[in-house]
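Hi C.,

You asked whether I'd gotten around to modeling the 147-residue construct. I have! Everything is below, sequence then structure, no commentary in between.
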Amino acid sequence: MRQLGLTARATGEGAASLVGVFYDPVATILNLGSKFTGGSLDIQSFSSQVSNILNELGVPEPETETERVVNMIGQGMTAGGGSASLAKGLTNFFTGVSKKVSQIMAANPISQTIAGGSAGGSGQVASEMGYGPSSTCGIFIWWCGWS
């Protein structure tokens, strides 16, 4: 049962990271605007909000190194495959350069899913080995380009 919960968490957090691509910049702008005007608005990232909801629902969190790596692989696969599916769905709504970019993004969904999982896993392995955020990000980006 724990593995099912971990799979649900990886899928939910992976989908949240995909939504966060659009949501998080708006939240950041609103937070900065609020602070600039003396307000106290603090909108969390979409991924953080989903993680908090999953915690409240009692969905298990990855505890071991292996669970954390597998969780990031699942998140990466969900986001990679999801972005390809989203691009495919949006292709008909775009014209010109936007349409071409969307077509390129939708071209190889299986490759994107595998690359997303590989990148997520390699970045988490680097993190588990003690590399800092900059190194982990660099490994993640390098792996995305390689795969």
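If it helps when you're writing up: Residues 23 and 106 are 21 Å apart (CA to CA).

Thanks,
B.
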